[in-house]
Amino acid sequence: MKHKISVIVPVYNVERYLRRCLDSILGQPYSNLEVILINDGSTDGSPEICDDYSSKDARIKVLHQKNQGVSVARNRGLEKSTGDYISFVDADDWIHKDMYQLLMNYVDGQSNKIFIFEALVSNRKKEFPETFSSLKVETWEKGKILEDYLKKGFYLWRNLYPKELAKKIKFKEGIHITSDVIFGIDLLEHVESACYINAPLYMYFVDNNESITRNSYDARKYIVFDVNLYLKNRTQNLFPNDNALNELVRKRLMENIKYHLHNTRKGKRTEPKSQDTIKFRRRLKKEFDKNYKNAIDFSFEGLTIRYMPLFISDIIFNLKHKLLQ
User: Fold this and answer.
1) Are the C-beta atoms of residues 231 and 252 closer than 8 Å to each other?
2) What is the mean pLDDT of the chain?
3) Which site from 34, 57, 125, 168 is most exposed, i.e. has the minimal number of CB atoms within 10 Å?
4) Is the domain covering 5-210 a CATH 3.30.1050.10 domain?
5) Helix or strand or coil: residue 89?
6) Which residue ranges does the chain devote to CATH 3.90.550.10?
7) Is the dihedral of CA 207, 209, 211, 213 positive or negative?
8) What's the pLDDT tens digit per position in 218-253?
9) Residues 6+ apart with CB under 8 A from 322
10) Beta bridge partners of 205
11) How many angstroms separate the CA atoms of 125 and 111, rounded?
12) CA–CA separation, 102 and 127 (whole Å)
């Protein structure tokens, strides 16, 4: 009997793209699917689209809830899923026409093995390749999985999970960005290996207007620092003897600290004089000092942050910025 795949799709105000996403899932030759649509309080036509598709295809389950965020939606989808494998798809993206069939060709029954594949990025109707002439399939150990995540992103949609693994972890509710990172590193504690397939099977859609909003900065992004700090500590616990991996994570944290310090300086969109921002910047400075390595982080920016008070480094960087304008 074919393994059932539960496809979990959080839905929030994506009426322009939702049909494209659902058509790519429902048109798969591998038909033993359970598609769980979680409408997270959409205010556009998305709920009606979900219900319309559900009325025409018995494989679709629609769950309507008030807006609570993508983590709550994914957790609810996991709770309601009955498949042997779990796939996450974002409602504005789409998948290769043979994605699930290709992945199922390599299922070997191991409940602690995940599948990882490649993705393409598009801001228009980009096409997948028709065939994969140089298909490569590899078995990765746990350390290689984390290395891939660090370099390419902790994207849920680049993975297929056995249900036994996926249901061990819950998404952190209240975190609206970078929840993939926490889920990914927590899951690695239970993962034994991965089947990596070098084929691009997922299309990640980037809307130009949404990209501008995503790249803007405000206090809601402070959580990214905490997530990177969590990632660093978890990596040290899971891979205590892997110096290369721990250094990758340390560098990631240091770059994130510099990003936050830059965006919370006087004159930026956040209010630097607020008590929350002042406390946050102190935390950033403390962690930067703690993780600073002279031989690696030796640069004008690194030295300035490490050895000068924050208000002095702010003056220096603002002056430098004006001179370069």
Assistant:
1) yes
2) 91
3) 125
4) no
5) coil
6) 5-210
7) negative
8) 888 999 999 999 999 999 999 999 999 999 999 999
9) none
10) 122
11) 36
12) 18
